[in-house]
Amino acid sequence: MNVLKNYINGAWTESLSKETIAVTNPANQEVLAKVPYGVDTRKDVELATESASKAFKEWCKVPVIKRVQALYKLKFLLEENIESLAEIITQESGKTRAESIGEIQRAIENVEVACGTPMLIAGDVIEDIASGVDEMMIRQPLGVAACITPFNFPSMIVFWFLPYAIATGNSFIVKPSEKVPLTMMKIFEFIDQLDLPKGLISLVHGGKESVDAILEHPSIKAISFVGSTPVARYIYSKGTANGKRVQAQGGAKNPIVILPDADIEMSSKIIADSVYGCAGQRCLAASTIITVNDQKGQIKEALYETIKSRTTGYGWDDNVSMGPVITPESKDRINNLIQLGIDEGAKIVLDGRKTSVSGYENGNFLTPTILENVALNKELIKTEIFGPVMSLVSMKNIEEAIQFVNSGNYGNMACIFTGSGANARKFRNEADAGNIGINIGVAAPMAQFPFSGWKDSFFGDLHGQGKHAIEFFTQTKVIIERWPKEWSCKF
Ligand code: NAD
Which of 283, 287, 435, 451 to mutate to test the pocket of ligand 1 (most atoms within 8 A of CB)? Predict the structure, then answer.
């Protein structure tokens, strides 16, 4: 079986670790490859950092306009190969074809925004801040930066960081999720075709050990992490204790409020996609749906009608709207959480636990589940499910709904569906979340905006994407200089 190589110092190289784990297709458990793992992957990080440090010295002197030329080429390579890349994403992560293509498009949008770095990186100047004295602030790169990414967006999340890091003059190391490393293998075939200094962008595999090596290496100056909250908290505390700049995005539990004045039919379709798209494995997947003053149960009925028609299957097959979850362990965890909700008093109105897809009997499939009357003060309402499960709760008014939204530990996203501008405005001002949707079910910021997150969904200050990314990957230098006019030479 093929053991995946790292990409270090501009070449495909075997890992120094002999230990491996399997990468499997979640739809049928087929082993797709073996990925290096274990304590010796630390040595791979060492090699990648060494070559990245050398490449940085050369790259930081290349004018920014030239640096972004490599990104233009990368954009075209991604576009040309979108179909084959999407198929790999579906194979290893289980997404549908449309979801896989959608995430590559979001990755490309980040490359496009980073191509604007010559403008985004511009500094500030004040002439004559005192007589004959000018002061300016410029931005310079940090050195070697690294990202550590989760399984649920094998291509896109790396692009919240990589294009900005490179455009601003840093070198970069990617450590993808060991569950979905194949997408990055393909993307590094494109990176290999760019005319870049050797070692400028590296790929290292592994799990906790390679991450720890990144956290400890003194030459790595910045770390971008996306994954679960416990690991995000660990990365942030260890990385910052080691003197690194860290942005760590964590888990989520996203609520959606639906008011009786919303367009119920349209809202139900959008909400269903938010909960069940990517089999609920999106950090912006809605989990708790709060119906407000739904006296006749119209909202519930519309949701139920939309949801029961969704089809589960292998993501690359036609007419499939939901693929499998990532691993059998993940499926068991979700099933246990559904049971927990029932034990805590919820009523199950759609049960997606006993699902088998013809031709894919070994897959980690679930179909949409709806739990009604979920207890507000119990465990299920607080825990990230990361699976295709909707928890329905009902509230009397918008005040009560906002209070509930703000009571959770996470703060990645909160959305409202309403026909009232005043209610929408109240919600966007008062809801404690970094990304707000109004009549939008997945409030994913476009690449021009930071991917905001609050509370236990984010540790750090500057987020990925857009101007925040430019700031994260640069340090400011303020220069103050005196050139009194009496010093001017007369020729
Ligand atoms: P995870 O935390 O298990 O893994 C993420 C990365 O951390 C992987 O590369 C993994 O190798 C590494 N890792 C895992 N355990 C580690 C440990 N103990 N020490 C050091 N490194 C470790 O997350 P996942 O299961 O791959 O992804 C799902 C999670 O990611 C969900 O909680 C989801 O909400 C979150 N997520 C958040 C965002 C966001 O923008 N906030 C986006 C996508 C996913």
Answer: 283
